[in-house]
Amino acid sequence: SGVRVGEFNEWVPGVTFLAKKQVGRDLQDVVFADRRNPRRPVLISARHGQIGTGTNPEDIVFELRDGAVVLHDDHSDVMRVLRFETSLYRLDVENLVGNKMHTTSASQEKSIQELWVSSHDTTLSAKRHATYTITLQRKFALPTATLLFALLAVTLAAKAKSGARARGFLYSAGIVGAYYYLGRAVELTARNGNIDPVLAAWAPNLIGLCALAVLLIRLRRTAA
Fold this sequence. Notes:
By secondary structure, the protein is of the alpha+beta class. The protein has helices at 93-98, 112-119, 126-159, 165-191, 197-223, and strands spanning 8-12, 15-23, 26-34, 42-53, 59-73, 78-92.
């Protein structure tokens, strides 16, 4: 369902897939390129192909029929073409994207119920208690922030003059960037015990509400 026929699909970095036509599950005129190893890139073309899962649910398997594999060895600068009737090409998605999960902390992987229990666990250290409390509160603060961004966008659009599209883009990028960096700053401060964790989680939203109130007042004065 994720294949866009007639377009290059790059689901993971360095792996590109193109299918010219699709009839049911059958993909036709397929081109598959794996450039993850720049010294030995792999190019596969096939008349037909299907995409499915392997033995492990984390695997993506490309079942290709009536095609050829082009291999290039950077050391010897030799091109080899291997023709096949049926070929299975497996991508271990868990290993391909697993390194991105290292940026996710253990607290972010917990459910709301687990975070609630951990945030009220008196046996934890103050730093861990603050981390769980902030993570729990931000699960509610971040969805609320999207509504706040929308209200700010409407207010800025009402104030903007014609031809101020570029300025509006800069304002939008500045608001999102300020929200992120402010949230990170107060989160680190709360972990060190210098501010209440609940206040730290909601501080960017509160500051955003203050900014919205100022913009509304200015807009009202301008309209008057």
